[in-house]
């Protein structure tokens, strides 16, 4: 047992786990067995149907946790993300504070799903008022009248209710830390630590696989550049901008293929965009992929495009995997992805006419295969040196030693978010 873990009885982690289709579930499934090498780990999933086997980790459901008095005084870690897959971890972070890994600095989508999505506008208003006072109340009431700008989700991220009760907060980037840092300094909020998103150990299984073999397995053309969009295809990933750029590259790169390797969000109208741009023969959409298929596409491609706008502050596990496999990438020169070294990723500056500028950047990269390959080598070296799973686990153990995460600390009681949100959490304190 490592020195930071020697004085700890164990660790309780509220988290989703695979087969839940959540990047955070995958992250936890990789991290927790590594932590379990240093101390006992109990993972708590939402329901008994979600209980799975995880090496070295005891996995139980929320009802079984509630019957385990022996776990109440263990340090607690909550893996919090911005979807209903993480609702039980979000609720536990409010009822039984501990250390929070805030994978998504914007939690507005989760809060609205737990309130408006369940017919509870009063709970939504309570959350907004708790964090934003009368301005929040006005937003909630205007929304009930059908008046709402989606940008408000990012301007009112609704994470303070969790953070103000936390013993400490782990984030994956300096950008994310800046989103939650209060102007008054850390004395006015929980302590923060940046632990970069680790590289999945699963990528090592493909180290000896050649690109040509990966393409053959996937039925991709043996020649010609393959451009990749990886993961759940949402409007925020600027897939429309990528498609427009691909259309602009048709004359210079007639054999360019754009593979959208993931399930498209219906809000994207991906099929409609492909048809309008006349890209039917130039774009392949795979739908949801298993991890093995996901990694195989990364091996088969020449270049990943991983854009995001608006930027909420989450770090991309798909990007980390691809870079760690040696796949060069284009990212926005803003947000967490911009923190990767310039030698490892090409960065698209913000500005007007993004499709035109992206097409120019892609063309410059594809014209010089040797320089593109060098970027891939640099990306692989950086991820494997600085983002190892062992390094991530060591950083978590150091945070546990510094912050504890045990005891029964309670957050603010007068006007606290917890009291205002009880109506949709619908549970007693843990």
TrEMBL record:
Residues in Glycosyl transferase family domain copies = 212-375
Please verify whether the record's keywords include Kinase.
no
InterPro entries the record matches? Glyco_trans_1 (IPR001296)
Which SUPFAM superfamilies does the annotation name?
UDP-Glycosyltransferase/glycogen phosphorylase
Domain of life, per lineage: Bacteria
Mention one GO molecular function: glycosyltransferase activity
Kindly state which keywords UniProt assigns to this record, in alphabetical order: Glycosyltransferase, Transferase
Can you say what this protein is called? Answer: Glycosyltransferase
Recorded source organism is Roseicella aerolata
Taxonomic classification: Bacteria, Pseudomonadati, Pseudomonadota, Alphaproteobacteria, Acetobacterales
């Amino acid at each position: 047992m490592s020195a930071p873990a020697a004085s700890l009885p164990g660790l309780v982690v509220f988290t989703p786990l695979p087969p839940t289709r959540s990047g955070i579930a995958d992250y936890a499934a990789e991290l927790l067995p590594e932590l379990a090498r240093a101390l006992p780990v109990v993972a708590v999933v939402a329901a008994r149907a979600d209980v799975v086997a995880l090496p070295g980790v005891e996995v139980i459901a929320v009802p079984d946790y509630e019957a385990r008095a022996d776990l109440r005084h263990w340090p607690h870690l909550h893996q919090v993300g911005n979807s209903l897959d993480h609702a039980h971890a979000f609720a536990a972070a409010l009822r039984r504070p501990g250390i929070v890994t805030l994978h998504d600095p914007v939690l507005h989508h989760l809060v609205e799903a737990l309130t408006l999505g369940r017919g509870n506008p009063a709970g939504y208003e309570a959350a907004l008022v708790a964090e934003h006072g009368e301005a929040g109340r006005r937003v909630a009431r205007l929304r009930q009248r059908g008046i709402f700008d989606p940008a408000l989700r990012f301007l009112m991220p609704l994470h303070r209710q969790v953070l103000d009760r936390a013993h400490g907060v782990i984030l994956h980037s300096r950008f994310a830390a800046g989103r939650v840092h209060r102007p008054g300094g850390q004395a006015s909020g929980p302590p923060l630590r940046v632990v970069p998103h680790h590289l999945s150990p699963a990528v090592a299984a493909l180290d000896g696989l050649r690109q040509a073999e990966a393409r053959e397995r996937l039925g991709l053309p043996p020649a010609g550049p393959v451009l990749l969009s990886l993961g759940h295809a949402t409007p925020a990933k600027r897939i429309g901008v990528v498609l427009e750029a691909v259309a602009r590259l048709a004359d210079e790169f007639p054999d360019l293929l754009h593979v959208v390797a993931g399930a498209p969000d219906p809000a994207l109208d991906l099929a409609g965009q492909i048809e309008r741009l006349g890209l039917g023969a130039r774009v392949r959409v795979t739908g949801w992929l298993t991890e093995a298929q996901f990694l195989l596409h990364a091996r088969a491609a020449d270049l990943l495009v991983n854009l995001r706008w608006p930027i909420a502050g989450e770090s991309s596990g798909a990007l980390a995997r691809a870079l760690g496999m040696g796949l060069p990438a284009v990212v926005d020169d803003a947000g967490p992805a911009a923190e990767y070294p310039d030698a490892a990723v090409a960065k698209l500056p913000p500005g007007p006419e993004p499709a035109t500028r992206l097409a120019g950047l892609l063309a410059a990269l594809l014209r010089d295969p040797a320089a593109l390959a060098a970027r891939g080598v640099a990306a692989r070296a950086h991820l494997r040196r600085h983002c190892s799973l062992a390094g991530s686990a060591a950083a978590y153990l150091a945070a546990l030693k510094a912050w504890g995460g045990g005891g029964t600390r309670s957050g603010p009681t007068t006007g606290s978010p917890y009291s205002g949100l009880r109506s949709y959490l619908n549970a007693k304190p843990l």
